[in-house]
Amino acid sequence: MRELCSFDYAIVRVVPRVERGEFVNAGVIVFCSTRAFLDSRIELPRERLLALSPDVDLSLVESHLGVIPLVCRGGKEAGSIGELVQRARFHWLVAPRSTVIQMSPVHSGVQADPEAALESLMEKLVRAPAVSP
Question: Deepest of 8, 31, 101, 112, by most Cβ within 10 A of its Cβ?
Answer without folding.
Answer: 31
